[in-house]
TrEMBL record:
<keyword id="KW-0808">Transferase</keyword>
<dbReference type="GO" id="GO:0015667">
    <property type="term" value="F:site-specific DNA-methyltransferase (cytosine-N4-specific) activity"/>
</dbReference>
<dbReference type="Pfam" id="PF01555">
    <property type="entry name" value="N6_N4_Mtase"/>
</dbReference>
<feature type="domain" description="DNA methylase N-4/N-6">
    <location>
        <begin position="18"/>
        <end position="68"/>
    </location>
</feature>
<dbReference type="InterPro" id="IPR029063">
    <property type="entry name" value="SAM-dependent_MTases_sf"/>
</dbReference>
<dbReference type="GO" id="GO:0032259">
    <property type="term" value="P:methylation"/>
</dbReference>
<keyword id="KW-0489">Methyltransferase</keyword>
<keyword id="KW-0949">S-adenosyl-L-methionine</keyword>
<dbReference type="GO" id="GO:0009307">
    <property type="term" value="P:DNA restriction-modification system"/>
</dbReference>
<dbReference type="GO" id="GO:0003677">
    <property type="term" value="F:DNA binding"/>
</dbReference>
<keyword id="KW-0680">Restriction system</keyword>
<dbReference type="GO" id="GO:0008170">
    <property type="term" value="F:N-methyltransferase activity"/>
</dbReference>
<protein>
    <recommendedName>
        <fullName>site-specific DNA-methyltransferase (cytosine-N(4)-specific)</fullName>
        <ecNumber>2.1.1.113</ecNumber>
    </recommendedName>
</protein>
<dbReference type="InterPro" id="IPR017985">
    <property type="entry name" value="MeTrfase_CN4_CS"/>
</dbReference>
<comment type="similarity">
    <text>Belongs to the N(4)/N(6)-methyltransferase family. N(4) subfamily.</text>
</comment>
<keyword id="KW-0238">DNA-binding</keyword>
<dbReference type="InterPro" id="IPR002941">
    <property type="entry name" value="DNA_methylase_N4/N6"/>
</dbReference>
Amino acid sequence: MVAAEDRAFHAWYRFVLSFPPHLVNEYLEKFGLESQSILLDPFCGTGTTIVEAKLRGISGVGIEANPVAHLASVVKTTWDIDPHQLMVQAQQVAMMTAETPVYQSETALRTLPAETLKLLLNNSISPRPLHRALVLLGSLEQQVESPYFDHWRVAFAKAIVKHCSNLHFGPEVGVKRKKREDAPVIKHWLAEVAAISENLQMAPESNAQTTVYHADARDVAQYLQPQSIDAVFTSPPYPNEKDYTRTTRLETVLLGFIKDGEDLRNLKKGLLRSNSRNVYKEDQDDVWIQNHPSILELADRIEARRIELGKTSGFEKKYPQVTRLYFGGMARHLASLRPYLKPGARLGYVVGDQASFLQIMIRTGQLLAEVAEGLGYQVESIDLFRTRRSSRTEQHMREEVVVLRWPG
């Protein structure tokens, strides 16, 4: 939950269970960042870190592989537009759309192509709200040259998921029993645009520059300048068997980022391997942890547990490999980052323990610290951030900030 005083900019669009802005601020202060510093978030999600940096006049660089999250991060750090015209022109688009016979139709409903519709969770949005959403999108796509186009699209993504879909998050994404048979899509979209406009009116003046790349954090070479980064603060995916693409599937599909199964596979291939649904034969990140016996032994224990329990599905057989690929991917990321860190740069990685791999505990923070040390980083501390209760085992899991230093 984000505190009321922290909702500006952040509330435009957020992942479920994103870390809170106050945690970012704590480490910005701890790292001693100033206006001339450059902060990197290589798994920037929906932009919590880089938004907080910009609010404090600190330049930021974000890297994000999920296209919807990347769009949100770009929009949430783009403040040089006219907030009044953002709203005025949105109202014009809304009026034009609402008055069209096709939007008002109750019979000839628009829908997605069959192959695209299959990508969605079944019943994630009812036919009438989907129809109205697609009509509004058609109007927005006619405004692609507008300086407000991307802000309108983020408002659309927020409105559709929160107010017009049948989805619920807790923290897994699912479909509600009671479906929304219809929804005033345009009304909800305008409300989200209005919230963005209000926030932009109070945006502080800042010389901070923010750039967000749509890219894979395991290979940062083409996006950063040598020895340019003063600090890193980020939260990579956890090895928790959650398919993060499901969380944003509805808006990813509606905004046209993926249209078929091949698009979805390509998206997943650009992500850190944190679940069995994005493991592929050609994956080789596990070569990065061949000299880490604790990780290899952990994967072996998971495999032994699978055999003991008689779990034989294709997904379950991949659990040990996910563990190796996850920490191998993090090793690859940390290795690729080294040339771009200033000597003495400090890094904070927010990660959490997991027990979802057949109930074998994965001490993510400890293992990540071990991987980092093997790559020449110094481990300053592993700070407890919060605890949470496992929905399966009732165990209390630690979420921690692994604090590193790059000696140069």
